[in-house]
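Example record used in the benchmark description.
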Amino acid sequence: VQLVESGGGLVQTGGCLRLSCTASGSIFSIDYMAWYRQAPGKQRERVAIITRGGGTSYADSVKGRFTISGSNAMNTANLQMNSLEPEDTAVYSCNARSTAGQSYWGQGTQVTVSS
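Model output (structure tokens):
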């Protein structure tokens, strides 16, 4: 499985960005897809997850501001980020997990929110 992300960039506080992740390869094996982020000096944090069945879950820090969406085919996972705050500044990475437990990562995309 290969993952390619797009959509990062620089935005002002209160702005919005949309991240996209496109999966290719053995997408039939993907059980769920997720977005993670890691800020300098901090641990990686799972931001949002979407399952093949369409179930979603969010980190408390982004609930009500971020929305994850995707296809049932598990070939895309989009993250709509609204009301962005400087604390959201991080490298955002797409992750896919197969039914066999294998984990795949994209290259990451930088999101910077200026105050």
